[in-house]
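Lab channel / #folding
Pinned by the channel admin:
"Please post every new chain as: sequence first, then the structure tokens as a reply. Keep commentary short and put observations after the output so the thread stays searchable."

First post following the new format, from NK:
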Amino acid sequence: MKPVLDSFFKYQSLGNDFILVDWSEHSPSDVASFLAHPSWKEAVISLCKQHKGVGADGVVLLTTDEKTGLPRATMYNALTGNDGKFCLNGVRCLAHYLGNNASQSGQHAIAMGDEVIPYNYVPWAQESISTHHRPGFVVKTLPIRIEDEDLTGHIVDVGNLHLIILERRGPGWLKKFGPLIQNHAIFKQGINVTVACALKKTGSYALRTFEHGCGLTQACSSASLAFLSLLFHHGALVVDQQTQLKQPGGVLSGHVTADGLISLTAPASTPYRGQLQAPISL
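Reply from TO:
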């Protein structure tokens, strides 16, 4: 049976919400044919519209990885319908879905992009999901001039690119300057922009992200991974040091494990399941 977009699950993690579609039972060739058709991008953009569609930051598609047989997650951006490459809030939502619908608790793994992401799902611990990652690669630090403002940014690659700016800036500033930075000539493929600052006397940090293909978001866990990778790279984060990252959508906990992985923990939930009145098919 060929894929049909007729039902979905609505999911959220840290306020980052997704339309989750399960096509894991369909053949890779049938899925590839559907995704190559223009109607797929159109469907993603239409469904994600806040007032005229379901409303979401993106569509998370569950398929089966051909090489490993693992569940594969692909996140398609709300604004463009393009493959978002790497989305850890989307992975967390999929882990929750698998835990509840495939009876998967304990340690498992999900493929996304070129990565295989191990995770632990603990349903009785406020439905917390921990994912485990190699630290991102700190590409370089560079000065950026936007309008009349001079900034210093740190580029970190965690599977997608992030520019981390270590300054206290409000959402109004990021909403204005985020698109300008993303469209700067030096970022030809675009980039996610995050501002981060330490919160006094708490040992935690405040993060806010303007995502490529999505805009200002409630939370971004790949940005959290990039930020913790930057701290670890500079010796500001040591093994087993628990760190809280506070974002508008909620709090994520992170630490470096004894084997050098960065572990991220946050909850996920599913508000509802939906059925489309007009199914989308080829």
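NK: The chain has a mean pLDDT of 89.
TO: also worth noting, The chain has two domains: 5-133+268-280, 137-260.
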